[in-house]
Amino acid sequence: MLVRGGKFESVLPPAVGVKEVSVADFHLDRTPVSNAQFAQFVQQHPEWRRDQVAALFADTEYLAHWSSPVEPGAQILDQPVVRVSWFAASAYCEARGGRLPSWYEWEYAETTNATDVSLHDVTWEWVDDFAGMLVAGDNRQQSDPDALRFCGPGGLTMEHKERYETLMRVALLSSMQARYTGPAMGFRCAQ
């Protein structure tokens, strides 16, 4: 569905002293990708089967809940696909001629009620730029060996701390690596 762009205040300000973010019009799936949809993709792209995917692109839990490497099982066909890596989600969207939404696009659709998109489902969702969400503004700090410090300083720069569920999504995404999967980690596509 078409999401009309606009301006909003993100929980992740784009720069010091800047609170508003502009988002252009974009299309977003109404619902997360289902197991049935992802199974079709896996059958057409066997490199994304759980028994063939390269370890570089997915951890050992990738699609582990499916009944076979190409079949999710009848009872979960219509449920959102989970236990997919960022790499797999990105490849799926690309095969459909789309992409993963950016954080700002996802947050804009969720926050402003710009659509009737259900964004508070039981799944967490990958976004295209998840890896840069709590990165320090000073690139001299990027190689800081104390990787455990990222959450505290990042949290101090966040806005709208009352939007707990959105802040939790930021924390989860910031802790992920692109090959990680999770029992509630799904996605939807944008264009």
Can you describe this structure?
The protein has helices spanning 35-44, 86-95, 103-111, 151-156, 164-175; strands at residues 2-3, 6-9, 20-23, 26-27, 124-125, 185-186. The chain is built from 5 helices and 6 strands; from the N terminus they run ββββαααβααβ. The chain is α+β, with helices and mostly antiparallel strands. The protein has one domain (1-191).
What low-confidence regions span 5 or more consecutive residues with pLDDT below 50?
A: 135-156
Summarize the biggest pleated sheet.
Answer: 2 strands, antiparallel
Q: How many strands appear in the DSSP assignment?
A: 6
Termini, distance in Å?
A: 10 Å
Key phrases:
two-stranded antiparallel sheet, 191 residues, 6 strands, 5 helices, alpha+beta, two-stranded antiparallel ribbon, single chain
